[in-house]
Design brief:
The chain is of the alpha/beta class and 277 residues long. It has 12 helices and 9 strands. α2 packs parallel to α6 and α4 packs antiparallel against α5.
Length: 277
Amino acid sequence: MPMTTKEIMDLALSLAGLQEVPADSAIYQETTEAKKILVGVDIDTGDLLLAKQLGFDLVLAHHPAGDNARVQGMQVMTRQIEVMTRIGIPINKAQKALAERQRGLIQGAHSNNWSKVSGAARALGLPFMSIHLPCDILTENHVQKVLDGAVQPKSKVQDLVDALMTIPEYQNALTKPMVRVGAAGDYCGKPYVIMAGGTNGGPNVAKAYFEAGIGTLVSMHVPDDVVRAVREQNIGNWIVAGHMASDSIGINILIGELEKRGCEVVRLNGIMDPVGK
């Protein structure tokens, strides 16, 4: 039966263990009749026009696509402080490690055109929403569970890469997981997946993790300047799993639940189908 946009958002929150809609997720135009849904990682105006032409009831983006979710979205980086404290990093140290990176990204929001895509959806009369952090949490939890099940006391970094490659989205991706800091033959130590919280926290956050006993970080992506800085620290390893494939894991978990409820879902714009279609 058709779902409302609120029901879809509530479902995503429940799956991720969240109590309220995070700053990087939003319903831009509501509907009570979502049955045929187009889902994409990054939705632009062209995708909206395609959805309108093909008769979709709703377009669901992963990345923030307008309004406050586009302007205030990086506020979700504060979740990284909570995640860091789980492994024993003092909360004050976690906050300071994250502060510089967070400040720069939040200030950068002033250059955003925040209504370009959401405004187009309203002009088309097309229901539109985005769900970011909840899906990233689903990815993070799933990948962490896979790695925890694979690691042994003397496991190497390559063993973690091999474990990632058991996940269908990574198998089907054009860009495969790769080691960015350290070497495949290095001991991996304790792996920790950091994929939910806006974006990477930068080299200070990495150092805090390594000093707290993490041996290998696993993220969706990491910029070159952070790679160079972390290599100079010479403490731990870093694996980049891939952006589109990693995003697809959490999105596919949500899609699976939508399909169980009778929705017809079409993947577009970066989402890896778990069965390779």
